[in-house]
Amino acid sequence: MAPLRFGIVGSGWRAEFFARMARLLPEQFTCVGVVTRTAERGAQVEAAWGVPTVRTVAELVGGFPQKPELVVVSVPWPVTPVVTRELVAAGVPVLAETPPAPDAEGLSALWADVGASGLVQVAEHSPSMPAHAARQAVVDAGLIGRPTQVQVSSTHLYHAVGLIRRLLGAGRGAATVRSVRFEAPLLDPLARDGWTGATEPASAGTVLATLDLGDGRSALYDFTDNQWHNPLRTNRIVVRGSLGEIVGDKVTRYAGPRTVLTSRIERRTSGLEQNLDGFDLEHLTHEGHVLFRNPFVGARLADDDIAVAGLLAACARWLHDDGPEPYPLADGCHDHLLGLAIEESARTGEPVHVAAPPWAG
């Protein structure tokens, strides 16, 4: 299969993740160009990323230096729907970074304008991360019965909601959200740009929220400021079902009369101790069954990069082989709508009832 040719609009921190996948996996992905606002920034990107740049979307999709099959939109929130509309008008498939619009009104307007096009996917990568994909495989195998509740303390808002809905098999219907915010001291030693030098705790906010997704499905959301980077707050995830639960990498399940089993999801990583094959994720298994196999062995990718590359590969299958939509706009809109409800409830102290939106069908 020919590599997926994609372009990028935007040159920020997240945009570079996609360009890096093309650099590390050239047999699968080609970044044909990046749109930057200024020539000065374009020169920086060309030097650092090794890709050509242009100043406008029209130049990018016009075939310089090659016509992209897909364009990744990674720009500030208010700009995302503007660029997405421009690309859809040109008939170009889009992979829009999260969220696809900044607020509920913007989501509805974007859906009304481009929802029927079938051209817009959303770069929600959290459910595609190897550990989450492995948990999903346990759920899909029926080992814990019908999934009924997810508790997630890992990532924030729309990312967490996307993971919750995927693990529960919840659609895009109505929901009720109740949130509260607490302040407490916490040392914040590490941020996106590196070690902060902080040695004393400062006030940090934590939002706790419950989501009633209907039909007996619920979720507990727990996120502390800067939890993505702060090593003093670890990832925690629980998936509860009618016949057992997953807590982190531990699976407890009903296996028959008077028989309850507990076993672990095991991660096999090369490059440890006397293994000379280089540091790399190989696969995740449970009780001898492979749940997730790294499709990019040899690229030495972190889990987050594996998820990004997986999204691009899913886009290639969608465009080249009539594969399923990787993450439809409707899902990205619903994730953010529920994330906005979490914020609103935390701000007002009142429950937020989310009606079935236009994309619910």
Question: Main attributes?
Answer:
361 residues, globular, 11-stranded mixed β-sheet, alpha/beta
What does this structure look like?
The protein has nine helices and 19 strands. It is of the alpha/beta class and 361 residues long. The strands form three sheets. Strands 18-17-16-15-14-13-7-12-11-8-19 form an eleven-stranded mixed sheet, covered by helices on one side. Helix 7 crosses helix 9.
Helix and strand sequence: EHEHEHEHEHEHEHEEEEEEEEEEEHHE
Cα gyration radius (Å)? 21 Å
Quickly count the helices: 9
Kindly state the number of beta strands: 19
Structural class computed from helices and strand pairing: alpha/beta
Q: Proportion of β residues?
A: 25-35%
The helix content is 25-40%
**Rounded mean pLDDT score:** 96
Q: Major sheet: order of its strands?
A: 18-17-16-15-14-13-7-12-11-8-19
C-alpha geometry: globular
* Major β-sheet annotation: 11 strands, mixed
Poorly predicted regions are none
Terminal residue distance: 34 Å
Summarize this entry quickly.
This protein is α/β, with parallel strands linked by helices and 361 residues long. The chain has nine helices and 19 strands.
Write the layout of secondary structure elements.
Blueprint: E1 4-9, H1 13-24, E2 29-35, H2 39-49, E3 53-54, H3 57-61, E4 70-73, H4 80-89, E5 94-96, H5 104-114, E6 120-122, H6 130-140, E7 147-153, H7 157-168, E8 175-186, E9 190-191, E10 194-195, E11 202-214, E12 217-224, E13 236-241, E14 244-247, E15 250-256, E16 259-270, E17 280-286, E18 289-293, H8 303-320, H9 329-348, E19 352-354
Parallel strand pairs: 1-2, 1-4, 2-3, 4-5, 5-6, 7-12
Antiparallel strand pairs: 7-13, 8-11, 8-19, 9-10, 11-12, 13-14, 14-15, 15-16, 16-17, 17-18
Helix pairs in contact: 4-5, 5-9, 7-9
